[in-house]
Amino acid sequence: MADDTAGSPPSMPYWHVYTDPGGVSRQKRFHLTQFELKGIDPQTAPQWNDKLAPAQAAVTFTVLPVGWVGEWHENPRPQWIAVLTGRWFVETMDGHRVEMGPGELMFGEDQNTRPRDGRKGHLSGTVGSEPCTMMVTGLLVEPTVNQPGRFK
């Protein structure tokens, strides 16, 4: 078996939906890069971990039905969204639309946007002919403004 722990630390892509100083939501792709090779206990083989600051969180498993569209809205709190099955899209106020599928990760942090041309926050919905299942981890933290890629 090959040694998967050799070499440089990995990076993990994620989309960050954030609010700019003018109150407009935007999204950009970044990478988690602060991985450390360490076992979770002395009996466990080393694995790559990128530990974020501790925070209280609430986990919700979500199933978006086929044809679902969540009209313009802000994320209820800063939250990590991991797509498990199916596909969905997120369109931010700047007009940037991203489609995501299984294994893709997004950090939703578009709180404190300002209404503009009938838009506030983001528009999202399912893509294709199957539901989109997700694991949503909402963090009980204060949202940031204009800190795109703050976990890189």
TrEMBL record:
Region (Disordered): 100-128
CDD domains noted in UniProt: cupin_BLL0285-like
InterPro entries documented for this protein: RmlC-like_jellyroll, RmlC_Cupin_sf
Xref: SUPFAM superfamilies: RmlC-like cupins
Comp. bias (Basic and acidic residues): 111-120
Name of the protein described by the UniProt record: Cupin domain-containing protein
Source organism (scientific name): Methylobacterium soli
